[in-house]
From TrEMBL:
Belongs to the alpha-acetolactate decarboxylase family. SUPFAM superfamilies: AF0104/ALDC/Ptd012-like. It catalyses: (2S)-2-acetolactate + H(+) = (R)-acetoin + CO2. InterPro entries: Acetolactate_a_deCO2ase. It comes from the Bacteria. It holds the Pfam family AAL_decarboxy. The lineage of its organism: Bacteria, Bacillati, Bacillota, Bacilli, Lactobacillales. GO terms for molecular function: acetolactate decarboxylase activity. Pathway: Polyol metabolism; (R,R)-butane-2,3-diol biosynthesis; (R,R)-butane-2,3-diol from pyruvate: step 2/3. This is Alpha-acetolactate decarboxylase. One of its GO terms (biological process) is acetoin biosynthetic process. It comes from Companilactobacillus kimchiensis. It is an enzyme of class 4 (lyase).
Length: 236
């Protein structure tokens, strides 16, 4: 099994919903499973994007930080980059871009998209770090900062999860962004136009890692939650 065909995921989006926001993996451990990825820090501390092995965090002030090996995360994806060229696009909206990519690949497996180019009217967000006792994902996500750029050059890093895995991950696309100047980024809420080169990496294996040494997670009863609705409300 090639490690380049494996998507590693620590935690699930479902565990974030009731507020299980402890950091349960270190950045050092996460980077052992990939040089590319996305995630969030303990207490939903900003938005992470890993490019070429460098873990960037966009915090709630919009500042871009390179985090240390001991930075911890409750949820993250990572993989070893081995992208292949897919297509070039000009001035596509986020929905147009998503539709075009799905028209050229399969919706029934995991894949990652890396797109470098120019993005117009791009809106991103990052959440302010919270502390125990944690609020729910919905409540914590209300305390977010929104960032806007009229035009910026940078990298869109996206993961796609099949609908049948909704809850473990975000069913559909999950987009993060980092500018070339490392002064703007975050979880992508939308953009007006994207122009540049799209690369694709498809996975045939999901390696799902659960925080079994975290007592709060292991003892939690998820049965009272409408997990999927809560995730979609918070992610959009």
């Amino acid at each position: 099994m090639s490690k380049n065909h494996t998507l590693y995921q620590h935690g699930t989006l479902a565990l974030l919903v009731p507020g299980l926001l402890d950091g349960t993996i270190t950045m050092k451990e996460l980077l052992e499973h990939g040089d590319t990825g996305i995630g969030t820090g303990e207490g939903l501390d900003g938005e992470l994007i890993i490019l070429d092995g460098v873990p960037y965090q966009v915090d709630s002030d919009g500042k871009v930080n390179v985090v240390s090996d001991d930075f911890t995360l409750p949820f993250a994806n990572s993989h070893f980059a081995e992208y292949r060229n897919l297509t070039d696009v000009t001035e596509l909206s986020q929905k147009e871009l998503d539709d075009k990519i799905l028209g050229m690949t399969s919706a029934n497996t995991f894949f990652s998209i890396r797109m470098h180019g120019t993005f117009t009217n791009i809106k991103t967000r990052a959440v302010k770090k919270s502390h125990k006792p944690y609020a729910t994902l919905g409540k914590t996500a209300e305390n977010q900062s929104i960032f806007l750029k009229e035009s910026v050059e940078g990298t869109l890093l996206s993961y796609y999860s099949p609908a049948i895995f909704d809850g473990a991950a975000v069913g559909g696309f999950h987009h993060h962004f980092m500018s070339d100047a490392h002064d703007f980024g975050g979880h992508v809420l939308g953009f007006g136009g994207a122009t540049g080169k799209i690369e694709l990496q498809q996975f045939d294996t999901l390696e799902q890692h659960l925080p079994v040494y975290n007592k709060d997670y292991m003892n939690y009863d998820f049965s009272d939650w409408d997990i999927l609705s809560e995730i979609h409300d918070a992610e959009n």
